[in-house]
Structure formats: C-alpha cells, structure tokens
Amino acid sequence: MTLTQERKQQLISGFQVHETDTGSADVQVALLTARIKSLTEHLKANKKDHASRRGLLKMIGRRRRLLGFIYKEDPERYQRLIASLGIRR
C-alpha cells in the first residue's frame, strides 16, 4: 500500500524539471497519483474504511489544484503530464 523509496525515486527522476528538482508541481502530481492509485486499491478491498476515503479525497483535491496551476502556467506541459500519468481521459 505504501510507496517504496525506490519507486518514489523513480517517479522523482522521471518527472523532475531540472537536475536537483524534488518538489516541483510535476513531481508532486506524479507522487500523488501513485498514492491515489495505491489507496484506491486499498479501498476496493476495505469498503468501510471511511477515514482513508477522506484522505483519498483530500489527495485528489490537492492533485486537482496542482494540475490547475500547471495548466495556467503551461498548457503543453499539462497535456504531456496527464498523458504520461494516464489521468483525465
């Protein structure tokens, strides 16, 4: 269920904007997407876990705000990001 350190490093290196980037909006969206997918699988098995469901909704809201920021800054970058993450069909 949790994001391993190796997987987190892969995501950071795959979406970083420059060499030392670890916290840009792109990286944050990628990490949130991985956590959202993991938590979605957890909630399929544990339907009554309402505390985790609330956390999931908060993560989705945070990702949505970050994606809105990226769209305002650079719509092309936004399109590349959602295509590579496979969100917003």
UniProtKB/TrEMBL annotation:
**InterPro entries hit by this protein:** Ribosomal_uS15, Ribosomal_uS15_bac-type, uS15_NS1_RNA-bd_sf
Record flagged with keyword Transcription regulation: no
Q: Which HAMAP family match?
A: Ribosomal_uS15_B
Q: Subunit composition?
A: Part of the 30S ribosomal subunit. Forms a bridge to the 50S subunit in the 70S ribosome, contacting the 23S rRNA.
Q: Mind giving the lineage of the organism this protein is from?
A: Bacteria, Bacillati, Cyanobacteriota, Cyanophyceae, Oscillatoriophycideae
Name recorded for this polypeptide:
Small ribosomal subunit protein uS15
Residue ranges spanning the membrane: these are none
Q: State the protein's purpose.
A: Forms an intersubunit bridge (bridge B4) with the 23S rRNA of the 50S subunit in the ribosome.
Instruction: Please name the Gene3D superfamilies in this protein's record.
Output: 6.10.250.3130, S15/NS1, RNA-binding (1.10.287.10)
- One family name in Pfam for this protein: Ribosomal_S15
Which GO molecular function annotation, any one, does this entry have?
rRNA binding
- Any one cellular-component term (Gene Ontology): cytosolic small ribosomal subunit
Q: Origin, by domain of life?
A: Bacteria
**CDD domains recorded for this chain?**
Ribosomal_S15p_S13e
Ordered alphabetically, the record's keywords are: Ribonucleoprotein, Ribosomal protein, RNA-binding, rRNA-binding
**Example GO BP:** translation
- Does Repeat appear among the keywords? no
**Family the UniProt entry places it in:** Belongs to the universal ribosomal protein uS15 family.
